[in-house]
Amino acid sequence: MLLNKMIIYILPSWYPTSALPNFGSFVKEQVELLAKLHPELTFIVGIRSDYDLILKITRPFHILYHFFTNSFKCIKVNRIRENFIEISNPAFSFKNFPKIFTVKQRNIALHKLNVKYCKNNFGEIRLIHAHVINPGGGIALDIAKQLQIPFLVSEHRKDMIQQLIIEKGSEYEEFIRVVIEADEIISVSKDQAQFINSYCDRLPLVIPNFIDENVFIPKEPDNDGGVFVFSTLAGLTEGKGLDTLLEAIKLWMPSADKIHFKIGGTGHLEGHLEKTANNLDISHLITWCGYINRFEAPSFFQKSQVFVLPSQSESFGIVYIEALACGIPVIATKCGGPEEIIHDWNGLLVDIDDPGQLATAMQSIYENYSKYDRTYIREDFEQRYSSREITKKIVAVYDRLIGLNQYKNTI
């Protein structure tokens, strides 16, 4: 069915699946909010439906099985809203042969099939919006040139760019090319924009991430026996500063009948962190909450008084604004994104990998908790990071790029 609306093709580098429901979930949530608040636009997301196969000669039957089964599978269309559609297509199949033996080749094949299907069934794509320069931006550049339409990229990952710079390989060269040739580059923080500019001599437009202000809302926490709760939600992996948090708890060593820490998330450091807590003799102060899905996240924040995450690097940090949306103050590190989010009225900032500073900050915010106004924290969030405010800025970019392209095609 052809749609009588302006079509934006979303090209994500990561997107949630049934196996990995939190993998790139923020992209899906943001597209759904764009579609909800801007019904004049149609958003079509191209997603993978095949396994990200590692082609090894030691697994030939496994490879052949998926190749032939995928070859008989049809494209799937999932209409989430009238103007928000997901289309998926098995890229590892006969119709894309032979350029399917690298992840990049399969990704390009997938999106070319999806774009062709979109044109035949929904209408002309007017603009491509990719998320993350590598790999999404590189694929968007290739397809946008083919279709002769504009494309923009929202960059969310500083650490990945740093790795590309260290390796100085073909992916680094593609990163530079995408930044130079994209019709617009959006960074989620000033720190990230300045970092990209230092390598590419192009200063990206800064538009922060956003969340649904109607889902993450303030709610007075249950007075769980009068215990004051610090919450943490993150992948239990390197870079999140969780060893630093445990050391800070040890340095403070608050009374268990007054203070408790709830740490949500999973990851390969889970066992290491629990063992560290045991060795530090602080396990009685901590509840390891395990996996927290997106539906449980608002309640997780609401049931605490303070959110703390001492990351070593954050381009932005969506969990920080989720906590602020719930009206609770935040303790974060000076690691890039948080410096633009956290101010005197909504939390405290400490240096990276400094358990002494972190312990002092936690004790200070506990002892001076009455100075943090939940209503004001929420109002400040709404002005800076609500979907109502930020989607307007993104759609203004769409309008500008599409308008420029229309003008270019008339001269």
Quick structural summary:
This protein is α/β, with parallel strands linked by helices. Helix content is 43%, strand content 18%. It has two domains: 6-210 and 388-408, 3-Layer(aba) Sandwich (Rossmann fold), CATH 3.40.50; 228-385, Rossmann fold (3-Layer(aba) Sandwich), CATH 3.40.50.
How would you describe the overall organization of this protein?
- The chain is an alpha/beta fold and 411 residues long.
- The protein folds into 2 domains: 6-210 and 388-408, Glycogen Phosphorylase B (Rossmann fold), CATH 3.40.50.2000; 228-385, Glycogen Phosphorylase B (Rossmann fold, 3-Layer(aba) Sandwich).
- It is 43% helix and 18% strand.
- The protein has 15 helices and 14 strands.
- The strands form 2 sheets. Strands 3-4-2-1-5-6-7-8 form an 8-stranded mixed β-sheet, sandwiched between helices. The chain has a 6-stranded parallel β-sheet with strand order 11-10-9-12-13-14, with helices on both faces.
- Helix 12 (338-341) links the parallel strand 13 and strand 14 (347-350).
- The longest helix is centred in the last third of the chain and has 22 residues, at 387-408.
- It starts with 5 loop residues before the first strand and ends with a helix.
